[in-house]
């Protein structure tokens, strides 16, 4: 069944809006029957269409290619050299010609994650489209927990040298531990207390590194 131009426009508007909400660093896998023939002109669609497309293109295929180019996606089905019967997903009922209409899309930077995308010829999916599988090797990196505030203590003792000693020491600790400090001014006129508080600061730094 052929959709109206208005329905196609609405579909791609919705798809654009949805893709725009996906964080760039996230893994993204898009699967579906796009009723799109993308053809074989991979030279014109570098990074989107691979060298192993199938047949000619149509208007739906152009829509899909443009969408992939805008969102830096690629058509994984077209990047693997497999037999036509393992690539084509639908046969036209009158011409009996096979076409590639169902795709698996990923971000271009994740191309190496995809081991193969192909058709399972004998799978029964209660549909006139063949089942497409994509084998991937995903390495999911957990997001870093946001760091809590790191306290940067400046100790101002009764004697100027105590303040200078502690301030220099704080700088050394921050530099050695690669910690980005936030500043909190703490004033004391007791050199012993100043040094004790500095030792507490070092402990805070150690704890912060341990939990990140």
TrEMBL record:
InterPro entries: Endo/exonu/phosph_ase_sf, NDK-like_dom_sf, Swc5/CFDP1/2. It comes from the Eukaryota. This is Endo/exonuclease/phosphatase domain-containing protein. It comes from Schistocephalus solidus (Tapeworm).
